Amino acid sequence: MESVCILYPCYFSAGLKRSEGRRVPVGRAVKNPTVDDIRAALKRCGYTYRAEEKHHPAHWFKREGRVVVECTESKGTLIKKVAGTIEVRQ
Question: Which domains does the chain have, with CATH numbers?
């Protein structure tokens, strides 16, 4: 059964604490992730996705965007896969 998961850049940000929205361990987090970084990781993993100009409710002032992903596994599993694949432009 396909479901939809929403991923925000703050989930992967090394500059945030867990209480501020980071969803991955600091060792797997990256500096300044973007929607494009998440999209590239999802493409490498073979997911169907679309980017939106929405923002995380707790970070409304940043206007970073989000990615809506069609997935069959849990959101936590998807986040772990993306965190292992994400590469940030330096």
Answer: 3-85 (3.30.56.30)
- pLDDT 10s digits, 26-78: 989 999 999 999 999 999 999 999 999 998 888 888 889 999 999 999 999 99
Question: What's the rounded Cα separation, in Å, for the pair 49 and 57?
Answer: 20
Contacts (Cβ under 8 Å, ≥6 apart) of 69: 4, 5, 6, 7, 42, 47, 48, 49, 78
Amino acid at 30: V
Which residue from 11, 4, 15, 3 is spatially nearest to 65, judged by alpha carbons?
Answer: 11
C-alpha distances in Å from residue 20, one per residue of 7, 32, 41, 78, 86: 15, 14, 23, 20, 20
Closest alpha carbon to 64 in 75, 52, 50: 52
The identity of residue 70, as a single letter, is: E
